[in-house]
Amino acid sequence: MTDVLIADDHPVVLRGFRRLMEDAGDVCLHEATDPIGAYRIFHRLRPAVVVTDLTFQGDGLAGLSLIRRIHALDRQARILAFSMHHDPVIAARALENGAIGYVFKDAGTAELLRAFEAVRTGTSYLDHALATRVALLNAVVHRTPSAELNARELQVLLMLGKGMTYVGIADALFIKYRTVLTLCAGMRRKLGVRSLAELIQIAIAQRERDSA
User: Could you say which of 67, 134, 146, 167 has the lowest number of CB atoms within 10 Å?
Assistant: First the structure.
């Protein structure tokens, strides 16, 4: 029997994944709807496989932090990122933080099962097209602006792309308003832009790439 932890804040996704695991067989499923709850379950039960979304309501790309914390606790953790984000930069971040597989939420059932089974056996999983795009990030001509950003900066960038204010971002991430200002100033410096308007344009472009 394989213990599996799924972390996602969408009931429909949890229900669908539960059915998927019934098809996989020989699985004991544990569920969490937020990163804190997921980390606590992992700390207590040490499931063999962790499947996690990257984006949680009001908390940006908190799934990246969850992956990093689990990996720091257990270097052998088998983590599958299960995400709507098609941007290779975000996929690369998930792998850098400790995931060994990455699969899109809109993938077919057969592919989801292939990804799960690969990760369950300790084998990395990326579909060929995404693997190629991630590999191309090493070539400067193929880098997207957000490749320069860390996980927290990506969180803030995504929130800016959704039209959130500095105050709203600070409240959602439970950080100080001044911290948001500092993060945005750092992003402007890294991305070579001078104004908030230009930064928001990049954020919107990033969001459009994710949904493409």
Answer: 167
The domains of the chain are located at: 2-136, 144-211
Give per-residue pLDDT as tens, 130-142: 887 777 654 433 4
**CA-CA distance, 60 to 43, in Å (whole number)?**
23
| CATH entry 3.30.565.10 includes domain 144-211 | no
Residue 54 DSSP class: S
pTM: predicted TM-score of the whole model, two decimal places = 0.69
Decide yes or no: CATH 1.10.3720.10 for domain 2-136.
no
Distance CA 153, CA 140 (A): 20
Smallest Cα–Cα separation from 154: which of 207, 78, 95, 208? Answer: 207
CA dist 172 → 37, 141, 157, 158 (Å): 17, 35, 13, 12
Nearest to 4 by CA among 38, 49, 41: 49
